What we know:
It is a single chain. This protein has helices at 19-33, 54-59, 64-75; strands at residues 4-9, 37-42, 78-82. It is α/β, with parallel strands linked by helices.
Amino acid sequence: MPKKILIIEGHPDSSPQRFDHALAESYLAGARDAGHDVRKVDIATLEFPWLKSGQDFYKGKPPQVIAEQQELFLWADHVVIIYPLWLGQCRPC
């Protein structure tokens, strides 16, 4: 039975040579080939204003782009989150 799959790509660098991007694209291709409905969100490409206060968090309305992402979570049967885990290791890119 086909699933609705949401892939959240959380690498802060939108450069296509990042391993996380290749992993997300491979997952997306495999899931689509298997007949699933797949959508992907690349966090690094989203433009939205930062929260500036606790008041914004508790009483503010989310910006349109954030509200759209929230709707995707409600749409999905399955969510995949891909992000880098550096564990304090930093080396030049």
